[in-house]
Design a protein that fits this description.
It is a single chain. With 549 residues, the protein is α+β, with helices and mostly antiparallel strands. It is built from 16 helices and 27 strands. Helix 6 packs antiparallel against helix 7. It is flat.
Length: 549
């Protein structure tokens, strides 16, 4: 490689680089035979150069074989797997991605490889911790778990006795659905699955020179959120099921009441009055419901339509009565599917969609489509089969889910400080703030200098401010601070709050590996945030994304 003096100088530089960056578990230089010449271990925040007698031969490792043929300027990324030391999995286990680059001397002769081991466990853990309400899995393209809340499921391909521990074996039907498309959502007996395929090295497409960035054989990762069936049923059935039961009870009450009134020959005026009161009670419940309630007859024609249905679909009662429900409210691509399901109902008296909650796309009067949640129950009226349908517009819920997913998957397409400007624009739009910024903590000072700031959709000039006397002072202790309203009264000496007339304030710390304080991210609004807890959750996700930069 060179003289001992050059080796010692390189050791010093790599040690300084490890201490400064704080994110690479190992930094190594390997010669052409695969022997470690220099290795710096991060040691959880206490970097050290490994003694010569403890250096290892890595010629047999796949990443050395794949990267030793790299040309000048090319970079290789390994699999996401476990670190191996002395031919055994290191304990405690460390999930790792390795970045390799060939090193050449002034004459153009290849001298070896520079390899950076990026420790992936904390990065993945901080990401998935934002999703406590669902089961989160990160899979490779062969259905092995790169992350699971169950340790025994993770990285089965690294162990001879765990080769069959895959998502595909645990959830075969779900894996078939996932293979069929790049993203989506479906429901089966194991719960509600939401998935998206992600390409961890998609940024390499931005490199103009072809062939600069190379990866192992892995194609993509799959991010899967699963809400367990029991939890989903408990959440989903709450309102819709109660409303359906109330409606059916009242409907049955009317029928029984009418029967006994007729049979006992109670006076006509009294019977009419009683029925009218029951109908008024039913009408009051139906009219005050936020969900659409409709009844369709044996031929799939609409026979009842409440005010919420008018609001959700845009059709008045007169416009829909007697018309076919599928032709009127279903997008054309789903009509055949719904029609077949209703034919089965006509033949057998059993409905494909009855007795459970399902999600469909529906069509409004103006032709626009929206996601809906539907529950259906079969009843008989005058000895004829009818179906009571309760529909909920879940556009807002889907929008929030999509916003959280987009934030969690990150913002791509920008580099260096531009990524913070992109993050701030996205954050301001997502939480509807009046001002937001991300800042770095100035070393040795209780001051913050902004890296990016955004207000009213515009990127602002960066500025500095003191943490003393501000709500952000808590961030120095690694705590998030959140004030739903009246923040100016709490911090009367904070000039920024009074200049901008801020009423609601939320901030989260940015920390590196080992809990090292890097800075903070803040959103401010001149009036209280409408969905304060959602904004707090979004900000925490943004903080994780920003800290990785």
């Amino acid at each position: 490689m060179g003289s001992d003096e050059e080796v010692e100088r390189l050791k010093t530089e790599l040690l300084s680089f490890s201490r400064h960056r704080g994110r690479y578990d190992q930094i190594r230089f390997l010669d052409m035979s695969g022997m470690e010449i220099i290795r710096v271990n991060y040691n959880y925040g206490d970097p050290a150069v490994v003694p010569r007698e403890e250096l290892q031969l890595k010629a047999h490792r796949y990443y050395f074989k794949d990267s030793i043929s790299l040309e000048k300027g090319e970079i290789y990324a390994s699999f996401f797997d476990l670190n191996i030391e002395h031919n055994e999995v290191e304990q405690p286990v460390k999930t790792t991605i390795r970045f390799c680059m060939a090193v050449f001397d002034d004459a153009g002769n290849k001298k070896g490889l520079l390899i950076l081991n990026l420790l992936g466990s904390e990065l993945v853990q901080r990401f998935v911790s934002s999703f406590n309400y669902v089961s989160v899995s990160l899979l490779n393209s062969d259905a092995y778990w790169l992350y699971s809340r169950k340790d025994e499921e993770m990285l089965g391909f690294m162990y001879a006795d765990k080769k069959d521990v895959t998502f595909a074996n645990s959830y075969p039907e779900a894996w078939k659905e996932i293979l069929a498309s790049p993203s989506g959502q479906f429901y089966n007996e194991n719960g509600l699955f939401t998935f998206k395929k992600i390409y961890p090295f998609a940024f390499s497409q931005m490199i103009k020179e072809p062939g600069v960035f190379k990866t192992g054989k892995q194609r993509e990762w799959v991010l899967v959120y699963r809400v367990h069936k029991n939890r989903l049923d408990a959440l989903s059935h709450n309102i819709s099921t109660r409303l359906t039961k109330a409606y059916l009870f009242l409907l049955l009450f009317i029928m029984i009441g009418s029967f006994f009134l007729a049979k006992t020959r109670v006076s006509r005026s009294w019977a009419i009055s009683k029925i009218k009161k029951s109908e008024e009670m039913l009408s009051a419940i139906s009219n005050s419901a936020h969900d659409a309630i409709l009844i369709i007859d044996y031929m799939a024609n609409i026979t009842y339509w409440n005010p919420a249905a008018e609001r959700i679909f845009g059709f008045t009662k007169d416009e829909v009565m007697g018309r076919n429900v599928w032709k009127l409210l279903s997008p054309a691509r789903y009509r055949e599917q719904h029609a077949e399901a209703f034919k089965r109902l006509q033949r057998t008296g059993e409905g494909k969609y009855t007795g459970r909650i399902v999600e469909f796309m529906a069509k409004r009067k103006d032709g626009t489509e929206f996601p809906m949640e539907m529950s259906a129950s079969i009843v008989k009226i005058n000895d004829k089969l009818h179906v009571v349908v309760v529909v909920r517009d879940i556009t807002e819920r889907k929008s929030k889910e999509e916003t959280l997913s987009n934030i969690a998957l990150g913002v791509t397409g920008a580099t260096s400080y531009e990524v913070f400007n992109t993050l701030m624009k996205y954050l301001e739009k997502a939480v509807k703030s009046d001002l937001c910024f991300v800042g770095e903590l100035l070393e040795g000072e209780a001051r913050v200098r902004t890296i990016a700031a955004c207000a009213d959709g515009r990127i602002l000039d960066n500025f500095e401010f003191s943490l003393s006397g501000s709500p952000c002072e808590k961030v120095l202790a690694g705590l998030k601070c959140a004030y739903p309203e009246n923040v100016r009264q709490e911090f009367p000496d904070d000039k920024l709050l009074f200049d901008e007339k801020i009423d609601s304030y939320i901030a989260a710390p940015l920390t590196g590996f080992g809990g090292r304080m890097l800075g903070l991210i803040v959103v401010l609004k001149r009036e209280p945030f409408k969905d304060f807890q959602l904004v707090v959750t979004m900000l925490q996700i943004f903080a994780v994304r920003a800290a990785t930069e």
